[in-house]
Each structure stands twice: as structure tokens, then as C-alpha cells.
């Protein structure tokens, strides 16, 4: 066996978005989760009866990885593809047109000079609009051409409608060109959890257009766990047809990996690199990650880094989990700090229930249902809570966060409400050395990875 000290974790498990080994996951219905075929030699088109796919899930659940796999499939087969990310600061139309601008050379190679000419003409028209002195905004560059880009709050309804019409026409042109060449076209959009209502309306209408044309054009998207609900709501606020289009999406939930899938994610790369491991060590890593592929890779990566000549033993696994959990405390504190009092209360009530979670219908007294439901929605969007299949049971999917919240608040008080700040140690302002702040707090220094911070020990 290879001494694990001679192989870096990056070399064994790859990067977060580009893992060295893919687990062929299935959804709740037992269907393959991925758009892309796991076999590099397989040139089949994506096996989806619907033209639009939406991957949903908590942060770290593998949504972006699935989009990357789809993009790699298109590149491997020589298919045209356009990729964009939704943003809280720019209209999705601008992001999409920027994606087209950055791929003009790719469009020319895959779809020909006519499709390239049409796409370039569209981008140039947008550049001309950007020179209108009546508009305000910061000048950015789309490819080689400067374009006036205006923040979302500065776009009026008419301007957004014009942009949407431009994107829909551009998508039509690209799909027609790809159809003539008998090539599948992939339109890939990530981070729809940051999209506003008009962005989601664009996605619904684009999905409807693709379905009507019945061409080999695929809209592959990803967003948080509430994205599908928001998509239908946004489309419904505009038109009934929008709701119908939004429902054309094939929703693929990136649920927590099964125990078998988690074991495979860890053991296959280790065996490929001839690194020794103990079964109970892998069990410990799998249990600590609780089905989160990104967290599991991080923990397994750390285990490889700290392992000795005997490979990954149970003690090594415990050390790796402890180190990752310690570093995660800073992230947990930051997430806690941006929660409202009601969100903190609900998060604590759910965390104290452990892995079984909490039934939402039984939470709260008279008059509090709407308040707590809004808090549930916000926590799901943030990735701090996860809903069960029926939506009634909510859990804190990250065991590390769950334990941190219970320690932070206190188990008994979490059953009733929020604890005062002095009930448990809380991470405070980063500090290079221990000391006593001006307000009289007693602090001690802790180190997590390369970060040093102080903890309030009153």
C-alpha cells in the first residue's frame, strides 16, 4: 500500500467542483440523478423526457458538480453550451448575454458562421443600447465589446422586458442552429437561489419555449431547496401559462447521499491510490458527514493529510473530523449572526431534536405559525435547515452545526426558547492573542486551521 503521507488530499479526492471520483447517485424515485452519462465513451444525449432540469438541494449537496458534469459531457462530445450564473446584483438576462459573448468563438466552431454572426449582432445591439446617455450604470466588458450594465434596482420594467425578449430570441437562434446541425445544445444556469422574480420568470418562459420547439435543447439549472417553489410562484404572479412552463422542469433533488454512496465516495479514491484504511474509520467519516458530499470529501481529504504509515485508522478519522468541526465553528457563528431572533429560536428547537428532526405543525403557539413558517423558509434558503419529502419534518442536516447550536444555546433552554448570550461560549471578534477586552469579557485564544480567534469564556 502507498504511504498516505506521500499523496496529497487534492490528488486523492480532487477539488470541490472537480472531484476525482463521481458517485452515480439516484433521486427519491430511484432515477439517475445526473444529466451526464458516467461513462466517458457514452455519447448518448441526456436521458430526460423534459427539456428543462432543475437541481435543488442544500449548500454542498452537489448541485454545481452536476452542472459541471453536464458541461463536461457537452465539451467531450463537441456540443455547443452556454453557461451563466444568476446574481443578486445583475439581471439574469445580462449574465446570460455575457455568457454568450464569452463563447462567441465556441459558437462559431460548433454552430457555424451564421449562428456566430447572429449572436455577435445581438451583443453589439446591447452595446449600442449601453451607450445611451439616459441610462446609468457601470461599464463592463462582454468579450471584447464594452456594454453598459445596470444594477437590478435601476432597470425599469420596460428595460427588463426588452432584455428578456433579446435573450429568448437569442435562445431561439441558437436552438435553430443546433437543430440544423443535429447537435444537442445545453443552456446551463447556476445559483437560481439568488435570482429575483423576473429572473425566474425568464427561466419559466425559456423552458416553455424549448418544450414547444421540441428540439434537442436542454436547460440545465440549479438552485436552493426553495427554488422550485419560488419558480412556480414567480411564474404564477405573471401568468397561468408561466406556471405551466415552470412545471415543465424536471426537479432533481440532491438529497443527502445514502450510506452506501458515501462509503463509495471515500473508499474508491483510497483504493485507487492504494491507501490503507480501516472500515470503522470510513464509518466514522460517513456518519460525521451525514450525507453531505462536500463535507465528506473535506473530512476524507483531512484524514489523508494527517494519516501515518498505517493509513486511515479510526483515530485518524476522529482527528480529521475534530479538526474540520473546529474550523467549521467560525462558519457556524457567522451563519448564526445573520439569523433573526425567530430563526435562531427555530434553529435551536430543531437542533435539539437531533437527526430525527422536528415536525413543523407542532411548533409554536396560537398566532405564531406564520412567523415560524417564514423563519423555516429563510433557514431552508440559507441551507441551515432541510425539509423532509413531505415538507412537515425539518432537520439540521449538518451534525457539526447541530451540535454547535445545542452547545451555544443550551439543551434545556432550546426546548423553550433562546438562551442568553452567556449560556455558552461564543466566538467573538478575531484576535491575535488572548486578553481582556474593554468591556471586561474574559477571552481565550483558539486556533482553527490557519485562523486564530478569541472565545468569550464568561
From TrEMBL:
Signal sequence, renumbered to the chain: none
Record Pfam families: AAA_16 (PF13191)
Highest rank taxon of the organism: Bacteria
Limits of the Orc1-like AAA ATPase domain: 49-212
SUPFAM superfamilies for the chain: P-loop containing nucleoside triphosphate hydrolases
Stretches the record annotates as Disordered: 420-458
Compositionally skewed regions (Low complexity) per UniProt: 443-452
Name assigned to this protein: AAA ATPase-like protein
Species whose genome carries this gene: Kribbella caucasensis
Amino acid at each position: 500500500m502507498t504511504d498516505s503521507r506521500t499523496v496529497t488530499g487534492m490528488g486523492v479526492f480532487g477539488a470541490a467542483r472537480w472531484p476525482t471520483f463521481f458517485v452515480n447517485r439516484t433521486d427519491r424515485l430511484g432515477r439517475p440523478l445526473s444529466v451526464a452519462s458516467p461513462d466517458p465513451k457514452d455519447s448518448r444525449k441526456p436521458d430526460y423526457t423534459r427539456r428543462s432540469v432543475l437541481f435543488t438541494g442544500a449548500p454542498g449537496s452537489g448541485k454545481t458538480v452536476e452542472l459541471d458534469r453536464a458541461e463536461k459531457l457537452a465539451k467531450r462530445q463537441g456540443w455547443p453550451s452556454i453557461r451563466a450564473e444568476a446574481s443578486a446584483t445583475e439581471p439574469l438576462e445580462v449574465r446570460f448575454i455575457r455568457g454568450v459573448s464569452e463563447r462567441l468563438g465556441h459558437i462559431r466552431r460548433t454552430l457555424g458562421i451564421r449562428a456566430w454572426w447572429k449572436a455577435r449582432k445581438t451583443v453589439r445591439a446591447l452595446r449600442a443600447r449601453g451607450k445611451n446617455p439616459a441610462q446609468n450604470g457601470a461599464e463592463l466588458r462582454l468579450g471584447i465589446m464594452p456594454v453598459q450594465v445596470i444594477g437590478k434596482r435601476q432597470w425599469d420594467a420596460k428595460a427588463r422586458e426588452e432584455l428578456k425578449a433579446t435573450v429568448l430570441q437569442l435562445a431561439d437562434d441558437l436552438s435553430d442552429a443546433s437543430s440544423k446541425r443535429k447537435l444537442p445544445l445545453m443552456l446551463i444556469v447556476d445559483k437560481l437561489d439568488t435570482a429575483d422574480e423576473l429572473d425566474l420568470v425568464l427561466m419559466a418562459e425559456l423552458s416553455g419555449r424549448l418544450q414547444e420547439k421540441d428540439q434537442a435543447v436542454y436547460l440545465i439549472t440549479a438552485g436552493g431547496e426553495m427554488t422550485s417553489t419560488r419558480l412556480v410562484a414567480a411564474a404564477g404572479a405573471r401568468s397561468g401559462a408561466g406556471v405551466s412552463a415552470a412545471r415543465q422542469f424536471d426537479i432533481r433533488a440532491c438529497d443527502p447521499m445514502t450510506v452506501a454512496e458515501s462509503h463509495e465516495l471515500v473508499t474508491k479514491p483510497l483504493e485507487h491510490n492504494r491507501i490503507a484504511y480501516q472500515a470503522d474509520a470510513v464509518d466514522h467519516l460517513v456518519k460525521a458527514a451525514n450525507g453531505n458530499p462536500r463535507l465528506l470529501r473535506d473530512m476524507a481529504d483531512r484524514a489523508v493529510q494527517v494519516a501515518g504509515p498505517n493509513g486511515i485508522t479510526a483515530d485518524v478519522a476522529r482527528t480529521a473530523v475534530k479538526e474540520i468541526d473546529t474550523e467549521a465553528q467560525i462558519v457556524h457563528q457567522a451563519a448564526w449572526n445573520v439569523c433573526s431572533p425567530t430563526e435562531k429560536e427555530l434553529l435551536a428547537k430543531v437542533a435539539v431534536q437531533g437527526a430525527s428532526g422536528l415536525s413543523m405543525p407542532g411548533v409554536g403557539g396560537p398566532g405564531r405559525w406564520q412567523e415560524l413558517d417564514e423563519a423555516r423558509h429563510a433557514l431552508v434558503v440559507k441551507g441551515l435547515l432541510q425539509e423532509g419529502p413531505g415538507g412537515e419534518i425539518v432537520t439540521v442536516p449538518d451534525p457539526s452545526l447541530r451540535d454547535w447550536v445545542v452547545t451555544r444555546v443550551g439543551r434545556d433552554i432550546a426546548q423553550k426558547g433562546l438562551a442568553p448570550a452567556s449560556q455558552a461560549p461564543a466566538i467573538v471578534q478575531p484576535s491575535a492573542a488572548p486578553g481582556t477586552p474593554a468591556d471586561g469579557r474574559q477571552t481565550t485564544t483558539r486556533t482553527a486551521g490557519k485562523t486564530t480567534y478569541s472565545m468569550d469564556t464568561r
